[in-house]
Amino acid sequence: ESMQAFWDIEEVQAKGIQHLASFVKDKSAFPYLLTCTEVITLAMKIHTDSLDLQVEGCTLLLEILSQALEQGVMMALDESVASCLLHTVRKHSENEEFLSMLCTLLMMVSASEVAAENLRKVGIIPDLLSILRRFLHNDKICFSCCAVLWSLAVSENNNSDQAVLESALPVTSAVLQKHLQNGVVAESACSALWALALQGCLTDSDYEPTAALLLDALRMNPERAVLVKNGCLALASLVRLSETAALAILLDSKGSGTELIKDEYHLHSDEPGVAEALCLLMNEMVQYDEVMLDMRSQKMEKLLSEIKLQFPFS
């Protein structure tokens, strides 16, 4: 109440945030802290020039959200909170260290469909792309921003964002290219590319290079089951759209894509999610006669029989 009574006095807001932060370790205070997110974000919006207040507010929100996720509580932050966060992003778009923290916060917020929808409504996607272009070298920022992009791109109501999402393909591909050997970032970028493919954000000239890049990610990170699954789902979406993508998988300059599929299955033969994604990819590939003939010559039926034996009830 005191924070709400004295919005314009920075010291009151800062002291209020510090005092609220002192309750974070007290589990019984958690339900009350949940009700404070709007007060905290509004304080950040009104006093955007105070970096100390921004950092303390952001740290407190991260603590509250972390506890919420641990306890399975989904925080559906409303549009006014989303607007405040966007305001903070724009005000501090050059501060790499603070942005890294802020993008982590956005990623956690976007786990809720309602909050993701509100972030999309206030127009955060161009800002995310701008941050990615500026800080392509920063793995934490790239990981968080690609995760947010994934959440926003799979939103059902994003028809109005189609042009913006199409402009996300080059920068998302650049993230994957830059961080191919960083499994965590590559996994996040593969998910974002999958979402963009699902939304039809690629043109004819994008299918081949995007397929080649996804194959590179699979080769570089064969042990990461989630990356393999999402990479295969992204490839399946590309193949569904174009035979060019299917041929790119077969004729990849770095080795046969069908051999890669076999290797990935044998590496993750106890992972139903990976097997399902691989089957989906193969199902899309056999829609094209020329591709199906090649897969037959590579004895892919043998692999499918193996999968069927391994997962008879799926």
TrEMBL record:
Under which EC number(s) is this enzyme classified? 2.7.11.1
- Report whether Isomerase shows up as a keyword of the record: no
At the top level, the lineage of the source is: Eukaryota
Does the UniProt entry include the keyword Nucleotide-binding? yes
**What UniProt keywords are attached to this protein's entry?**
ATP-binding, Kinase, Nucleotide-binding, Serine/threonine-protein kinase, Transferase
Q: Which GO terms describe its molecular function?
A: ATP binding; protein serine/threonine kinase activity
Extract the InterPro entries matched here.
ARM-like (IPR011989), ARM-type_fold (IPR016024)
Catalysed reaction(s) here are: L-seryl-[protein] + ATP = O-phospho-L-seryl-[protein] + ADP + H(+); L-threonyl-[protein] + ATP = O-phospho-L-threonyl-[protein] + ADP + H(+)
The name this protein carries in UniProt is: Serine/threonine kinase-like domain-containing protein STKLD1
Q: From which organism does this entry originate?
A: Ploceus nigricollis
> Which gene is annotated as encoding this protein in its UniProt record?
Stkld1_1
